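Table S2 (continued). Query chain:
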Amino acid sequence: MADNTQLARLFEAALSSNDFRAVMDLLKTSATDDFIQEWPQSGERLTKEGSLRLAEAYGEKSGSEPTFTYRRMLGSGDIFVVEGTMDYGDGVPVSYVGIGEIRDGKVARMTEYFANPFPAPEWRAEFVEKTR
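Corresponding output:
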């Protein structure tokens, strides 16, 4: 059983390589049997089995494979946060934040948020620096 830091680093390496299959293979061995993946924005929840089945069918059902640009991972103890950008094959950079919870050396829960880009209101222009 890996300690929490080692486990987080394994996921960090898989995410950094942009190898979606490697992340799913890691989930098979490094998630608790009662693992939950939750997507609050769409009101969906997956079990470990459901998450693995969805990943296996993703390309066929959606018509594309997602790509992930890893930005960073932060955390300590039983909580880690992953930040990155996803592309679902349409060229739209979707901001991603995932909050992972570790229990007994395995990932027990991932709560994930996805945000499409949107135009900033004009009135904020004098207060901000544009990043894109």
